[in-house]
Amino acid sequence: MTNLPKIKRSIAHWRLLTTFLLLPLATLTAQAQQIEGTPGSPSATTTIDGKQLPPEPPKFGGVIKEDAKDSKPYWPASVVPPKGAPNVLLIMTDDQGYGVSGTFGGVIPTPSMDRIAKAGLRYTQFHSTALCSPTRAALITGRNHHSVGFGVIGEMSTGFPGYDSVIGQESATIGTILRDNGYATSWFGKNHNTPTYLYSAAGPFDQWPVGMGFEYFYGFMGGETDQWTPYLFRNTSQVFPWLGKPGYNLITDMADDAINYMNGLNAAAPDKPFFVYYVPGGTHSPHQPKKEWIDKFKGKFDMGWEKLRDQIFANQKRLGVIPANTELTPWPDTLPKWDSLSFLQKKLYAREAEVFAGYAAYTDNEIGRVIQAVEDMGKLDNTLIIYISGDNGTSAEGTLEGTPNQMTAYNGILKLPEAEMMLHYENWGSDKTYPHMSVAWSWAFDTPFKWTKQVASHFGGTRQGMVISSPGHIKDVGGIRSQFHHMIDIVPTILEAAGIQAPATVNGIAQKPIEGVSMVYTFDQANANAPSKRDTQYFEMFANRGIYHDGWYAATTPPAAPWLMGTAKLPDVNDYKWELYNLTEDYSQYNDLAAKNPDKLRELQALFLTEAAKYQVLPLDNSILPRLVTPRPSATAGKTVFTYSGENAGIPLGNAPSILDKDYTITAQVTIPNGGAEGMIVTLGGRFGGYALYLLKGKPVFSYNMLDLERFRWEAGIGRRDLFGDALKPGKHTIVFDFKYDGPGPGKGGTGVLTVDGNEIARKAIPHTIPILMTIDETFDIGSDTRTTVDDSYKLPFRFTGKIDKLTFKLGPDQMTNDEQRLMRHALERARD
């Protein structure tokens, strides 16, 4: 009997434990919440533990009787972040390498970035993935880009987990996490993380910003857009704010909208913290700043690209954003030296850099307006600001010479006549151009590193300047941090700063672990020189690979330059040469130690494969063009006949019939009212490439714009005026444009025939067509034209004043050469293996 008290205590403990284990989840959640104010009152708030998002709905805590006067109401407490949680302003520019911003030694002033650096810290070993949407996926999820389906841009997505361009429900974004913890969340600018086949009004919208935790979205879809007439959305509706606004530019409009949003939020709920994700299109092509910003840089680049590198390198050493022993990597033999250029070439290339610099400075200026708005609201002292210069290195997609129309480069036209280029010298950057600059400038703006955007193996593609300010938490203002970090480290940094943990489940779905590590430890001055908490990080893009581990870095040598736009023959992914660097002694990847230390190289190569298997990097794929034409899920996949009626503008490219590299027939059955009709029947594209079928003064016209280099028109000729020169008479008519393609192979010519009511009115053979990409941000419009004109014979919106009874597209098969088919099959076979 002496053990009876002990036994009773054990039974009591067991009952207590089982009672706890059997408690409903809602009760446990409620116990984990901290309620401020009187429970049940309208002003009560609660902070949740955040393990489960959204939290279980709280139980009603009032009293319900038959009569309301005998009952007691009870309001659920509003969810708020932990006390003291900061506002968050996350800023990232586009296509800017380490040497672009003045903050990191560049010659382009970036006073807004300087402002954050002076109030906080500069980070000198911060990294991207080398490409747009992969970096952005990593940034908003805290997970590696392959882990969330963005091993490559969405336009090249394939049906493998690491490459399908779908951020799964198991990888909730920072928007979702902060929203469900009581933040107001918003996204301004570029959205390159929605699958291209989901851009239409048909949705679904779960992969749009508003479906990924961002309550408000104002920005453009895809990798780039014309800044004068952007492909712009408010939430899920396309908007056209430039109409009737001469001088409109999206860079300013976006800042205006963000400021209006924050002011409205502050007026409605001044105590509600905000998370603003601010990602302008500057400085991705097209480079389109306002003219006054271009003028500020007149003559600033006449020294040429090699001397520009020297200036940036000297500035970087003076500022301390590169170590004193850093060596400037050599100028590549594949790029021309400035002194080898003609007078006209120097004049043109200097102009390209002036426009790019104006765009970078203009973008930073508008970012400064957003930052100032935070201060004007009195909230700067409680706002964590993260400002990243570029989502990858400076872009080399402008060809060796630059181009007034980036669409030419995207279509494999890598050289334009000098006379064609000089025609745009004065209007370079205006709405008459869609420009990009010479690769040589891009290389220089990535000083002190080798390579550019798209190249994940070298820091010219992945090293980004970044600054962070956190008032009250960073004492060492103006300091420099050299710990090795990556885009995936931003989400855990924000969460730690806000006192919010990553959820275990979201909407009942178990979450993948956050793969980044918080950088908050670097805020402490005592940790200024602390070892990095990120000891390993892989890199991969188009099979160019890199692996960092404890100060060492192994990387493949890129077998082809990105400015060749995928046209070069590439080796098998297992046949790449590898390089090795000791980053503790060699900041710029100058001294390749692979031959001297093969054991270390083998160790890191093995580590890369381990990381690749862990994070869905496999299968490796170095193809570019085959992936561009890979079939993807969509409402139009596999269709060869498309039928429409009435007016329907704004259909995205991915949902439109593609007439590239094939036979096609467009048949429009229209009704002409009394008094005649004119206007657009159907169009895709615009000023920089596209086609249109329309009535001009009542007469049918088919116009084909060959990338703004040449235009072809089919219309009634003078010799047939007696029969077809007059406008279509009232009544029903059938207009047909039939095109026979001269394939196989991309970009070949063909013969088009325009008929009305079965009678031929125009026949013309053309020598070439657009081979790969007709447009990026123009839409497929029926009954009007919403963006830019295909030619100058009409003015927008050119709404059709008759009736479109039926519009039909019939498409023939794609026509590729045997070699192209073989390359496609080989790429798919390798992917399957």
UniProtKB/TrEMBL annotation:
Molecular functions per Gene Ontology: hydrolase activity; metal ion binding
Domain of life: Bacteria
CDD domains: PAS_like (cd16025)
Keyword annotations from UniProtKB, A to Z: Calcium, Hydrolase, Metal-binding, Signal
Domain Sulfatase N-terminal: from-to ranges: 86-500
Pfam entry (one): Sulfatase
Polar residues compositional bias, start-end: 40-49
Keyword set includes Transmembrane helix: no
Signal peptide location: 1-32
Stretches for region Disordered: 34-63
Family: Belongs to the sulfatase family.
Protein name, UniProt field: Arylsulfatase
